[in-house]
Amino acid sequence: MSFFGNKRLIIVLVGLVLLISVVGFTSRERVSLTWPEMFFKDTFSVVQGFFYRPAQAVSGFFQEIEEAYGVYEENKALKAGLDQYASLSAELHTLKAENDRLREMLQAKDSLKSYRLRYAEVVARNPDTWNNVITIDKGMKHGIKKDMAVITAKGMIGRVQSVANFSATVELLTSYERRDHISADILTQQVVNGNAVFRPISGVIEEYDAQKRLLVMRKIPWGQAIKKDQQVISSGLGGVVPRNLPIGYIVRVEPDDYGLTQTAYIQPSADFSQLNEVMVVERDFTIAPNGELIPQQPAGQTQTQTTVPPAPPASGGGQ
């Protein structure tokens, strides 16, 4: 038994020696391989290729899925960023437009320091009466009264038609149903003694031409030289609308049907399609029951008995 056991050990040792000798021999740099080496290499290459290609395909499939999911997540993040950018851009444009409107209103306030202005926002505008009336968020509780003039930063848009406690209805200059006329002046430049002076030419704004989108001013004295782009302002002669409120600019002038007076077509200064914030102009006088004009006193002062003589009535029932 010991002989056979030693024989096995001797065989194992001899095998290890041969294996080490073969490994040492084959590890050297040679010109060509032996046929057993070539056989084993070719066989291993075929077997490796048989398993490698499916494994590589499966690995590539999962890698493509992972990349596609990464692209999906990135695209989702980019879309969210674009939506946020669009929202911020719209908000920025809205704030910029509001800032421009408020800046214009501040400039208008500086140019109308002689009047007390009450700011209001347009809260309703019915499409059926788009050119007739608007509703503002100020009423009697805020000092708003009937017939007060209403303006924007660019010019006059109408007058207060009716007043509730916390809101008021404003009749626009573009109203088809407007019956009240507005006394107005055309500012013309004339040369007197070598100096250029502005002299007003009076008339009455009676209606609005919806087709031409122009205000119609009639009863202008014949022979007065009126040119295009001359400014039209309220004259204040009617006792309702304060004077010097900008209304518009002359587009053209033509004689009336009888050739005794002239008719002017006026482009409104205000943009009636975009009415958001407005200013209600408080008059500096009140009208007594006998028709006398009584100046309003600043807050804290008592009313004196001095009255202003009645203003000459404007033809056509002007304001």
Automatic annotation (TrEMBL):
<keyword id="KW-0175">Coiled coil</keyword>
<dbReference type="GO" id="GO:0008360">
    <property type="term" value="P:regulation of cell shape"/>
</dbReference>
<comment type="similarity">
    <text>Belongs to the MreC family.</text>
</comment>
<keyword id="KW-0133">Cell shape</keyword>
<comment type="function">
    <text>Involved in formation and maintenance of cell shape.</text>
</comment>
<feature type="coiled-coil region">
    <location>
        <begin position="85"/>
        <end position="112"/>
    </location>
</feature>
<feature type="region of interest" description="Disordered">
    <location>
        <begin position="291"/>
        <end position="319"/>
    </location>
</feature>
<dbReference type="InterPro" id="IPR042177">
    <property type="entry name" value="Cell/Rod_1"/>
</dbReference>
<protein>
    <recommendedName>
        <fullName>Cell shape-determining protein MreC</fullName>
    </recommendedName>
</protein>
<dbReference type="InterPro" id="IPR007221">
    <property type="entry name" value="MreC"/>
</dbReference>
<feature type="compositionally biased region" description="Low complexity">
    <location>
        <begin position="295"/>
        <end position="308"/>
    </location>
</feature>
<dbReference type="InterPro" id="IPR042175">
    <property type="entry name" value="Cell/Rod_MreC_2"/>
</dbReference>
<dbReference type="InterPro" id="IPR055342">
    <property type="entry name" value="MreC_beta-barrel_core"/>
</dbReference>
<feature type="domain" description="Rod shape-determining protein MreC beta-barrel core">
    <location>
        <begin position="122"/>
        <end position="282"/>
    </location>
</feature>
<dbReference type="Pfam" id="PF04085">
    <property type="entry name" value="MreC"/>
</dbReference>
<dbReference type="GO" id="GO:0005886">
    <property type="term" value="C:plasma membrane"/>
</dbReference>
